[in-house]
Design brief:
This protein has 452 residues and is mainly α. The chain has 4 domains: 5-174, Rossmann fold; 180-250, Helicase, Ruva Protein, domain 3, CATH 1.10.8.60; 262-351, Zinc Finger, Delta Prime, domain 3 (Up-down Bundle); 369-447, Orthogonal Bundle (post-AAA+ oligomerization domain-like), CATH 1.10.3710. Helix content is 50%, strand content 6%. The chain has 21 helices and 5 strands. A 5-stranded parallel β-sheet has the order 2-3-4-1-5, sandwiched between helices. Helix 11 crosses helix 13, helix 16 (280-292) runs antiparallel to helix 19 (338-351) and helix 18 packs antiparallel against helix 19 (338-351). Residues 1-22 are annotated as: Disordered. Keywords: ATP-binding, Nucleotide-binding. Belongs to the AAA ATPase family. RarA/MGS1/WRNIP1 subfamily. This is ATPase.
Length: 452
């Protein structure tokens, strides 16, 4: 029986990569021992080792594996190595371009391969989070019946992006970002091995350090930049990739940040937490990463406005107006000039005194309301403007604060159920110290126990 087109493409990939292939392809590991990084998944007895050693089903009988991690750290490579080690067909699809039709074709091909010549199939599905719920549902029969060993890769949190039935039937493996040591080992191998650059050029320490910086933990990016630098050096008849040659060849570091994926939220979170921690330099770093990655400046401005109330509040009452003004300016001018406005606001918020009392106060009040502490509004505070309100006793006995000395009227404002509750507990940081001095006096006046 003729193998299907997916199988033919996969078998071609098993052959030695031609010299014309990109360096990142030529240096793809062929065994688990050649994989750099991910030692938590590769040590003896680890789930990935057991998946390879136990073959079909792997540990705990799992027939599906989900690899979760940032780009360029070896998800595709691990899937290919597993198929090689277990001597299974390797079929690769991308959820960006494939749909249910293509998935069904692979599944049918897997059934034919298993029945015709006893060959099991590994289906590697990249970017599975791009599949809709219905598309992910189409994978379930193949997983449950073990028609394929599904290895799916995602850069997004699978607990949010993958349907529960598929997640519960899968072995979830979290991949860690590659370290500089991992990338250095990979580049040394690429420089010296015949399938790589074969010793044609060397890489001085300063050029290697720059390459590691621009790689940002991404093996593909590291090898692509190394190949560009090597090509430029060889073209100039040089035997080493100098820092100048590398900079000219690579031109510019690409920021490792996916504004549509997890890092969109991770970097935004880091920005806000750095502001909260008053580390202005770290905050500016994360701001720069978001700007350089093409993040929507309005999204950044919205986060800054939230931060102004969440983490600064009354400790610096000017923080929120600054953030709001920044958001308005961003909407009017856009990038690149908006970077200046966002920097202005970020610096001001990071260096402002901090108070989260606005956050804790509304949080405590909401908790009580949700717990059922939402009694009747006192009669004297109810609306008395409509006809018949007086007969119901609404607004009767209400004391108008502006008619009394100090404009604070001693009367009950809260429902009986929460009378005496204290939600706002001011700090003595920054300008909020003034509110700390005032609030107790006001509370005493409201109870009728303080001086007029």
């Amino acid at each position: 029986m003729e193998p299907d087109l997916f199988t033919a493409a996969a078998e071609d990939r098993r052959e030695k990569d031609p010299a014309s292939s990109p360096l990142a392809v030529r240096m793809r590991p062929r065994t688990l021992d050649e994989v750099v990084g991910q030692q938590h998944l590769l040590k003896p007895g680890s789930p990935l080792r057991r998946l390879v050693e136990e073959g079909a089903g792997g540990p705990a009988g799992a027939s599906s594996v989900i690899l979760w991690g940032p780009p360029g750290i070896g998800k595709t490579t691990l899937a290919y190595v597993v198929s090689q080690a277990t001597q299974k067909r390797f079929v690769e699809l991308s959820a960006i371009t494939a749909g249910v039709k293509e998935v069904r074709a692979v599944i049918e091909g897997a059934k034919r391969a298993a029945g015709g010549y006893g060959k099991e199939t590994v289906l590697f599905l990249d970017e599975i989070h791009r599949f809709s719920k219905a598309q992910q549902d189409s994978l379930l029969p193949a997983v449950e019946n073990r028609w394929v060993t599904l290895i799916a890769a995602t850069t997004e949190n699978p607990y949010f992006s993958i349907i529960s039935p598929l997640l519960s039937r899968s072995l979830l493996l979290t991949l860690e970002p590659l370290t500089d040591e991992d990338l250095s080992a990979l580049m040394r191998r690429a420089l010296t091995e015949e399938r790589g650059l074969g010793g044609a050029v060397s890489l001085p320490a300063d050029a290697e350090a720059h390459l590691l910086r621009i790689a940002g933990g991404d093996a593909r990016r590291a090898l692509t930049a190394l190949e560009a630098g090597a090509g430029s050096a060889i073209a100039q008849d040089e035997d080493e990739i100098t820092l100048r040659t590398l900079e000219e060849a690579v031109d510019r570091a690409a920021v490792r940040y996916d504004k549509d994926g997890d890092q969109h939220y991770d970097v935004a979170s880091a920005l806000i937490k750095s502001i909260r921690g008053s580390d202005v330099d770290a905050a500016l770093h994360y701001l720069a990463r978001m700007i350089e990655a093409g993040e929507d400046p309005r999204f950044i401005a919205r986060r800054l406005m939230i931060s102004a109330s969440e983490d600064i509040g009354l400790a610096d009452p000017t923080a929120l107006p600054i953030a709001v003004a920044a958001a308005q300016a961003v909407a009017l001018i856009g990038f690149p000039e908006a970077a200046l406005t966002l920097s202005h606001a970020t610096i001001a918020l990071a260096l402002a005194p901090k108070s989260n009392t606005a956050t804790t106060a509304i949080g405590a009040a909401l908790a009580d309301v949700r717990a059922g502490l939402a009694g009747a509004v006192p009669a004297h505070l109810r609306d008395g403007h409509y006809k018949g309100a007086a007969k119901l006793g609404h607004a009767q006995g209400y004391v108008y604060p502006h008619d009394v000395p100090g404009a604070i009227a001693a009367q009950q404002y809260a429902p009986d159920e929460i009378q005496g509750k204290r939600y706002y507990e001011p700090t003595r940081y920054g300008a909020e110290a003034r509110y700390a001095d005032v609030v107790e006096k006001v509370r005493e006046r409201l109870r009728g126990t303080g001086p007029a």
